[in-house]
Design brief:
About 70% of the residues lie in helices and about 0% in strands. The protein is mainly alpha-helical. The protein has one domain. The longest helix has 29 residues. Helix 3 runs parallel beside helix 8. The radius of gyration is 19 Å and the shape is globular. InterPro entries: MmRce1-like, Rce1/LyrA-like_dom. Keywords: Membrane, Transmembrane, Transmembrane helix. This is Type II CAAX endopeptidase family protein. Pfam families: Rce1-like.
Length: about 300
């Protein structure tokens, strides 16, 4: 089977398995706050890995994933530290940029946490809200990236472990990242159409959300591929992926709640927003430019 056909088959499988899960829950009317959605998202994150496994059985060709699951920590520890803590820097810079544009949305009263507690029937937090925020920040910088990487690994096996090198065999470095960003972002479409990441009340729904998700996946995808190539391990990209998921919501702790604020989630403060993604996009383009020159020099 040709490289083009195996790529297409992988995409169909990765989309099909995940979309069946998300669309089934959407049609059943389950809300985003339901634990079923959280469970479905965890399962869906492993569907690209399942697609790689099934693709190997169909084509009877080795995927090469096993060699990329080796952790060479001694020679690459700096990149693993970057994978753990760089996402926090990106998230805070993005949130800071968002709040510079929308300063009236920023608050140190942590009303968003109080609103969540009230929705759950808790009228007053047993500990100060500032302590709750501190615990969340510490968690996102310590154990949360490792915990989340166990879920993110399923995606990384598919997107970075298989699809990235497969696309590189056919396309240039820039074309590969654009295509991978597009494929990865549209993979999230069913759950984003339900309001995940951006809500349902933003301007030009859902087109602007599709654009925002592409910018985010394109930017983060470059960093993830760069880490995998530098370390030779999918675990580095999985750790970064887990860390970005752990830190993406930190900016929301300082966001005022309310319907008006919800319509601005398309811009931030999570790094998936159009404004908040800019620091990540800037860094990704710098790395892409450097890697492109390196590849041209090696030729």
């Amino acid at each position: 089977m040709s490289n083009k056909r195996t790529i297409l088959l992988f995409v169909v499988l990765a989309y099909g398995f995940a979309w069946i899960i998300w669309l089934a829950l959407w049609l059943s009317g389950v809300g985003l706050n339901s634990p079923w959605i959280q469970l479905a998202s965890i399962v869906a994150m492993w569907m690209p890995a399942l697609a790689v496994f099934i693709l190997g059985k169909i084509t009877n060709q080795p995927s090469g994933i096993k060699s990329k699951l080796v952790v060479k920590l001694k020679s690459n520890w700096r990149f693993y530290l970057l994978a753990i803590w760089l996402p926090a820097v990106i998230s805070f810079l993005g949130a800071g940029l968002y709040f510079l544009v929308f300063p009236s949305n920023f608050s140190l009263g942590f009303e968003s946490i109080q609103a969540i507690l009230q929705e759950k029937g808790v009228l007053q937090s047993p500990i100060p809200l500032s302590s709750v925020v501190l615990i969340q920040i510490l968690a996102s910088l310590t154990y949360a990236p490792f915990l989340n990487s166990l879920f993110a690994l399923g995606e990384e096996i598919g997107w970075r472990g298989y699809l990235y090198p497969a696309l590189r065999e056919r396309f240039s470095l820039v074309q590969t990242h654009v295509l991978l960003g597009l494929i990865w972002s549209l993979w999230h479409l069913p759950i984003n159409l339900q309001g995940y990441n951006y809500g349902l009340t933003y301007f030009a729904y859902p087109v602007l959300g599709i654009v925002a998700m592409f910018l985010f996946c394109f930017s983060v995808g470059i960093l993830l591929s760069w880490l995998m190539e530098k370390t030779g391990s999918i675990w580095a990209s999985a750790l970064f992926h887990g860390a970005i998921n752990a830190t993406a919501g930190l900016g929301l702790l300082f966001q005022l709640p309310g319907e008006k604020m919800s319509s601005l989630l398309i811009f931030g403060p999570s790094p998936a927003g159009i404004i908040a993604v800019l620091p990540c996009l800037f860094l990704a383009l710098l790395i892409l430019r450097r890697e492109r020159k390196h590849h041209e020099f090696c030729k």
